Amino acid sequence: MQIKLATKDDLEGILALQDQVYRVKEPHADAKKILVDLIDAAHCDIVVAKQNNKIIGSATLLYFPIPAYGKPYAFLEGLVVDKNSRKKGVGTALLNKLIELAREKGCYKVVGTSRFASEDVHKFYEKLGFTKWGWEFRMDLA
């Protein structure tokens, strides 16, 4: 298995996994353009896990500079492993790579969210050193 930063060549593989994390029937019409913009953006890193030249996982970190700390924090979004490749260390490898990238960018923390009912996801994050902290307050706009 190879863990690497995503390139434009990885777009189709990343999009193919999206329904497994976002529960959409098909990607938004602008999904490819948005992914290209994110791949090129300094405030974002997307990593993919590849096996036999197929993308079996991906995850995104978005960086937000916080003036009070003089450093950014990293927000984890869309960590997904193909349902046929779960429980094989793919998610751990992706998350470890993202943590490494966050450290390289000087981030003071990495934040991820999870649904209350996703107890297996909570255990996964805790196993890797994350702690439950606070609440997420959210307003869906669309």
TrEMBL record:
Question: InterPro entries under this entry?
Answer: Acyl_CoA_acyltransferase, GNAT_dom, GNPNAT1-like
The GO terms describing molecular function are: N-acetyltransferase activity
List the PROSITE patterns hit by this protein, alphabetically. Answer: GNAT
Give the domain of life. Answer: Bacteria
Question: Ranges for the N-acetyltransferase domain?
Answer: 1-142
Q: Which Pfam families match?
A: Acetyltransf_1 (PF00583)
Q: What is this protein called?
A: N-acetyltransferase domain-containing protein
Q: Which organism is it from?
A: Candidatus Curtissbacteria bacterium RIFOXYA1_FULL_41_14
